Amino acid sequence: MRKAIFVGTFDPFTIGHASIVRRALPLFDELVIGVVGDNVHKPNMSPAAERMAAIQQLYADVPAVSVKPYFGLAMDFARDEGAKFIVKGVRSVSDFEYEQWQADFNRRLGGIETILLYTEPELASVSSSALRELAHFGVDVSKFLPKKQSL
Asked: Which of left, alpha, beta for 95 (phi over 0: left; psi -120 to 50: alpha)?
């Protein structure tokens, strides 16, 4: 069975994240969405339980997708889940460079392969950080948030 994890803070889970899930599903039998429960670099995140509930609602009818909290290193979460792959989305050169060194450590230290999926061009500017900032200033960001999935 081919199992992968897709991890992130997902604060909020965007149409860009949903695109990665949609495109990763044909590659794997199971995809575990790991929601970061602790992130010292983002201390003002929405509670993990809220972020998880929103994602679980989206994929309630998709048996190949599960949503779980994770703490610590992605390679440890992958190992705990019995996954051999980590799926990541990349929007830019800076994303690629960051993911490249992470992928190297995940492979060398954890034996976990990283699969990079490039962002669809029309979604390249969509990021959780940008949506949080826009929402802070009263902008309706709902068109950048996914609707319930039925795959």
From this structure: alpha
- The residue with tokens 């068109």 is 143
Token pair of 7 as six digits = 């991890």
Beta strands in the chain (DSSP E): 3-8, 30-36, 65-70, 85-90, 113-118
Predicted TM-score (pTM) of this structure: 0.92
Q: How does pLDDT run across 99-114, given as a tens digit for each residue?
A: 999 999 999 999 999 9
Ranges of residues in the chain whose predicted pLDDT is under 50: 150
Which of 142, 2, 11, 22 has the alpha carbon at shortest distance from 78?
Answer: 2
- In degrees, rounded to 5, the angle at the alpha carbon of residue 37 between the alpha carbons of residues 32 and 42 is 120
Instruction: Give the pair of three-digit tokens for residue 21.
Output: 């899930």
